[in-house]
Amino acid sequence: MAENGVESEGTQKRAGAKDKQNGNYADSSLRERKQQDREERLALVLWKRPLQTLQYSFLETLITLKEWTLKLWKRRGTVFLLLVLLSLFSMAYSVEGAHQKYIQYMEKKFLWCAYWVGLGILSSVGLGTGLHTFLLYLGPHIASVTLAAYECGSVNFPEPPYPDQIVCPNEVAQGGITLWTIISKVRLEACMWGAGTAIGELPPYFMARAARLSGAEPDDEDYEEFEEMLGQAETAQDFATRAKLAVQNMVQRVGFFGILACASIPNPLFDLAGITCGHFLVPFWTFFGATLIGKAIIKMHIQKLFVIITFSKHIVEQMVSLLGAVPGFGPSLQKPFQQYLEAQRLKLHHRAGEGTPAGENWLSWVFEKVVLIMVCYFIISIINSMAQSYAKRTQQKKYCEEKTK
After folding, report:
1. Which residues span the domain enclosing 327?
2. Quick one: 218 and 240 in the same domain?
3. 270 near 262, Cβ under 8 Å?
4. What's the maximum distance between 2 C-alpha atoms anywhere in the chain?
5. Angle at CA 38, nearest 5°, toward 32 and 39?
6. Pair 228, 294 in one domain
């Protein structure tokens, strides 16, 4: 009997060890399969599989539009109220009267603010794959206003053509140009752009929050990277990993002020802060409030000051003179820069309706082509992302079907 009991106990242990081995094997097999699926998704790009990528991107667009339509239908009361307000505004816009000047002013300001908010959203949305609209639009705009302010001796540019075109005013402002004067001139554009970047940080937050509330484990590269970093030791040797861990710890431990600190400085790792806040169910207004204050006020003033100081008249002249001192190719680079600056000064002193001076040089041509290339890359990245999202959707559907069998 004793021997049978010992044998039975040994058999149970061996069976338990075998089940454990089978479980580990199954987990390993599942991880390998997910890794293969991830590699297959990443290979779904226009330059490798153009037809399949376009097909998947189109199907994902249709599914997304369907989901948005269903969400709007669930909130049809709010949609109906917005439609009523839009109809009233359209009536006020079309009816002639003394109120038209106020309507036109509101329309102009709204479109101007919406333009910069949209550019801000494009800059930060997409977990680091957004369009760098600060370098393409806001930075050059601030630089143009700065150069024009020192050249004209005023920031009271006539409207129109400002902001589409900067023309020096007939009268020079009293007191001259100061740093604060230029900051005040571009404050609205900069703050709206910063608010747009804060809105663009919401998708990672909602993604991680929804995953935590549902108890699901999404097969997402950024989310999995986040989970791995949470489990890593603080003695990690890789600098990038240590920096990411520092962001996670600051946001998790300090809360509002930690989010504010991360959002107030140029930080390419802030997307991970959004995932952290969503994962730990940080309240929405705590996350968005700190992000909005940090990006639209603190960080925006830091970037704005940097651009204004860099493009101040005396600093630009010193940079051009130093460029000519570079041996070899320095003078050949100095000449087109001087021609470009001179062309911009001539444009500033032309009145509206007089035409624009000729003499666009290769710097303007190069900048236009750089902008075009970056916009094309952004569109291609959107198509690739939509196609990979649809592939991920089909793979998850297969996993669910296999579990139900």
Report:
1. 313-348
2. yes
3. yes
4. 112
5. 90
6. yes
